[in-house]
Specification:
The protein has 175 residues and is mainly α. The chain is 67% helix and 7% strand. It starts with a helix and ends with a helix.
Length: 175
């Protein structure tokens, strides 16, 4: 069946628009759940209103956007603010928005697609009702380490600990 390029472009634009709306609605729902729990609304009442289990409500409220990243058997809990910064940087690198940084790193460009994929995974994890940690693939670990190399880290934190762990991974991968 022949495809009309204009019709295909319009259809794809609608999917992109719907996905943006979906992400925003999911984030609004998460924030509403957290707000309701903090206001003292019983978990079961919030769960009924959100059409999910009270365990999901408990996990969402307890995590409040924290995402655990796992690497080499260690877990690194990262705050919502840290995740937002990483998503920005990873997605930007994945889209080719920081060519000077890529050149300065001297690590090639093979890691850039993994950076974009990791950005999407982290973004989705901030509103994941199951709270499943993000386990880094070797490619994603390398991409994250490159991004963190360009990020100033002055205070020890789970993010700094993850950076250090990924450095060891990078040294092993280079052999």
């Amino acid at each position: 069946m022949p495809v009309d390029p204009a019709e295909a472009a319009i259809a794809l634009a609608r999917v992109v628009s719907a996905q943006v709306g979906f992400r925003q609605a999911r984030e609004d729902r998460r924030q509403s759940i957290v707000t309701a729990v903090r206001a003292g609304v019983p978990l079961r009442d919030v769960a009924d209103a959100a059409d999910c289990s009270h365990e999901s409500v408990r996990r969402i409220a307890a995590a409040d956007g924290v995402v655990a990243v796992e690497h080499c058997g260690n877990s690194y809990p990262l705050t919502r603010q840290t995740i937002e910064m990483l998503v920005y940087k990873l997605a930007g690198h994945g889209a080719g928005a920081f060519p000077r940084d890529v050149e300065r790193l001297g690590a090639g460009t093979e890691w850039l697609p993994a950076a974009g994929k990791l950005a999407s995974r982290l973004q989705a994890a901030t509103s994941d009702e199951e709270g499943v940690p993000i386990r880094l693939s070797d490619q994603q670990a390398f991409a994250l380490h490159q991004v963190l190399r360009m990020t100033a880290m002055n205070i020890p934190s789970p993010l700094y600990d993850l950076f250090e762990a990924l450095g060891g991974h990078e040294r092993r991968a280079a052999r």
